[in-house]
Amino acid sequence: MQPTTPTQSPNTDEQISVWLQGLLTIAWADGNFDPTEQSLIASITHQDLTQADNSISFQAVSLEDLSSTFKPDPKLAENFLRTAVMVALADGTFSSSEDEVLHQYSEAIGCGSEMLDALRLTLCQEEKEPETGAVTLTPHPEVRHDLLDPVRDWLDGLEIQDPKVARFLCKMIPAQCPFERDITLFGRKVVHIPPMCKLNPLYEQLVGMRFRALSYLADECNEDVTPYV
Length: 229
What we know:
By secondary structure, the protein is an alpha+beta fold. It has one domain (13-122, 144-174, 201-228). The protein contains ten helices and four strands, in the order ααααααββααββαα. The protein has a four-stranded mixed beta sheet, with no helix packed on it. The longest helix is centred in the last third of the chain and has 18 residues, at 203-220. The two termini are 29 Å apart.
């Protein structure tokens, strides 16, 4: 039996470079990256964008590059925007800065505006405890399960067709739901964060996308996916 030939990506190196640069840009959008996350971005940048050094700094993707790369191919544009949305949701919250960047992406590539408008319903609000002043993140009170069904269906339509994009998603999306936790400062609780699966109404889509990326790498690319499990 001859060895299976790994599936070739239908996308060009230039398209994937702009794709990953766009995902890195949305990952940085909220400005909230701890040293572990910075190290992860550095490794992704060095490995998949083949930059000259390991610096975590990079140039944000330009809207002109996004438009010229994705707008001529609506299917490719939709898949890019789906992955960008999932990277924005990967930490369990959806910030206004991420929302703004995604809408800029949508306008530049000419798709997804209706889905992003619906996604705004997932914006998490902050509630302060009157006694301690600690902040608790909670889902937006207007979120209704059925209102997000079109967004869920849209996100589930993602097709994984490139190993670099698949690896990025496996690295950025947590392998399991982060535990409920408190963040303390000088011995005082300042933020309470519920489990992601309770905070994020699109958590199942996030897990599904990661599973499809893993399956693509294992089944289509014949890669060892144990580092991501």
